[in-house]
Amino acid sequence: MALLPLLKKRLGMSLFLPAHGRGRALPEEFKTLLRQRAGVWDLPELAEIGGPLETEGAVGQSQRDSASAMNADHCWYGVNGATGLLQAALLAVAQPGEAVLMPRNVHKSLIQACVLGDIKPLLYNVPYQTKQGHSVPPNHAWIQKVLAELPGNRGEIKAAVLVHPTYQGYANDPTEIIATLQEQGLSVLVDEAHGSHLAAAIDPDLPPSSLHCGADLVVHSLHKSAAGLAQTAVLWHQGQRVDPERVERCLGWIQTTSPSALLLASCESALQQLASPRGRRDLANRINEARLLKSRLIQSGVPLIDTQDPLRIVLHTGSAGISGVDADEWFIKNGLIAELPEPGTLTFCLGLSKHRDLHSKLTKAWNKLKQANQNQSAQTDFEAPPLPLVASPEVKLTTAWNAPNRVVTFEQSEGEVASELACPYPPGIPLLIPGERVDHARAVWLAKQSLLWSDVLPNAIKVMKI
Ligand SMILES: Cc1ncc(COP(=O)(O)O)c(C=O)c1O
Predict the structure, then answer these.
(1) Distance from Cα 428 to the centre of ligand 1, integer Å
(2) Residues 415-421: what's their mean pLDDT?
(3) What is the pLDDT of residue 466?
(4) Spatial contact of 78 and 232, defined as CB atoms under 8 Å apart
(5) Is residue 278 left, alpha or beta, with left meaning phi > 0 and alpha meaning psi from -120 to 50?
(6) Are residues 283 and 431 in the same domain?
(7) Is 442 contained in some domain?
(8) Average of per-residue pLDDT values in the chain
(9) Pocket test residue of 85, 221, 429 for ligand 1, highest count of atoms within 8 A of CB
(10) Is the model's pTM score more than 0.90?
(11) Three-class SS of residue 33?
């Protein structure tokens, strides 16, 4: 038996997702349910229970209650993560052959949905922080430049996607951007996988949830940014631009016919926790503790990158010449398990549970790591991807993905058309998508990325066989 013992194993400090911190921050009522006789809660869609697409039954009622508590028109719980709900939402806003405007830091699930639905992604660049190698959200002026750059035939573009906040917690107020996109006749789908807690609107210094900024469809990953079990998520819908019936048809197309009652109950309890006075008080406390922790870490000389989500700690390992990927191994050995290693940073997710002595453990481990690398000098700036402001793949995604292919290295990919995603995971943001032709600058850049990401991005890509 390989897996079962691992699930019981004591690990170091869990500074990774799910955000419930190995159960500690699960809602009390849900913990009580889990303590019942093992398995009693594993039920099918009995009439009384129902499912996310059924009006009758407890799930439908729970979804209506959650939507009303959030002032949304509808919501659907999901048991295949933000991934499943983002994919259904995208299929709902564009028909085969139509186009959707998407940021370059879009999660791979949405590109995969383009293949499923024969949808054309119009990819726009987002600002890039060269010091730490991160994409950050565009502001309104940036989006106006993107819109000015769009091809003549705007009629085929049906929707726009925003990522808010990013994995590392970068976010701004998307209200003006959403309004401008909608004025252009586009419906707006926001991937708010990392921002369920923003929807609690408990702190004026946190960025607002896009749900409160007029977005048509918003997806929350409840295990990433609320106290849901892995795979739990919710899709919110509001307004007249998107037809909720079409959303339901698309959900029915790709979701399992046997959704886990336990996961659906976890969706409900994670959302109830965000809405309850106790849950909101606990969240406010975690946020205040996180802010204090960050300022103490900075005072102790630990190099942190400032993002807008207090619950993400982004360690700038590159400032000491250390890759975040290498630093991750070191921290694991020192009992601190992070979430997102990247070439220049290592992101720890504080989640919703308390962490005792984190300041001293993190400071000690970082000082030891720095000591062991004292001869290194700070990393040089990362290169932004060499891409035009807006571009779409030369070959249809569906054609490129299904085409016979051969494997080449990135150096050899110049002039070739990609047949698959090049995508380090995490964070799951594609660097190249099927159908894109690689030019010289991109081939050189991809080869460098492969060195920077080491095993997470092997130097090999399937390209279309001609
Ligand atoms: C920005 C973003 N969107 C969507 C997802 C997919 O979320 P899930 O793992 O809940 O399917 C991720 C996962 O890492 C993500 O980072």
Answers:
(1) 8
(2) 98
(3) 77
(4) yes
(5) alpha
(6) no
(7) yes
(8) 97
(9) 221
(10) yes
(11) helix
